[in-house]
Amino acid sequence: MKNNDKACLIVGAGAGLGASLGRAFAGEGLTVCLTRRPRHRAALDDLVDDIEAAGGCARAFGVDARREDEMIALFDQIEAEVGPLEVVVFNVGANVFFPVAETTTRVYSKVWEMAALAGFLAGREAARVMTPRGRGTILFTGATASLRGAAGFSAFAGAKHGLRALAQSMARELGPKGVHVAHVVIDGAIEGAFTRENLPDFDAKLARGEILKPDDIAANYVWLWKQPKSAWTHEMDLRPWSEKW
Known about the structure:
Elements: E1 3-11, H1 17-27, E2 30-36, H2 45-53, E3 57-62, H3 68-81, E4 85-90, H4 105-130, E5 137-143, H5 154-174, E6 180-186, H6 193-198, H7 202-207, H8 214-226, E7 235-238
Parallel strand pairs: 1-2, 1-4, 2-3, 4-5, 5-6, 6-7
Helix pairs in contact: 1-8, 3-4, 4-5
């Protein structure tokens, strides 16, 4: 069933999971709105072309998700020009490694802005447009760092913990108003160029299913969107069968 008059927004549509999310929701008939920071906006053109070649609808936007005015304008533009937002996915990464003694205020603040403040802005604006309609789905991409802080990841873990707390608060507030809020913990390495270059025995591990595939992750996001109100999931964790937890 086509729903091209309805929109899905992917905030943070990189070449890995973000691209898979775009393709997955476009495949469900939604017009997919893809965002990256303005200087990386052109990198979305190939993804838009791929989605449209497959019969889907997509638009690209250059937006700094940390800027309140830009996020407000983005949501207003999509609602006016594309259609009502049925799904909003916050998928900004911001994963960095710094020993705590080498973590500057600038680094900590920037990571927090990217992974926590931007998530708040996306979530708030999604709530603003969805709540009056009494429907919608807001999905936040989490990480292992959402649950526990590893050595060298104080900035990333702090921001991801904050994002998880935001998702919990929003779910409790918006669920009774008909808006489904879910947080997805991605616990493990995701297939991509960085992983291929830095993970020993990448090809063998991928073949054994020991690395998360972006398309498989995206399928679970679509499933969350389709869940009936009688059985909503708030938090889902996804990891390869071999991952220790």
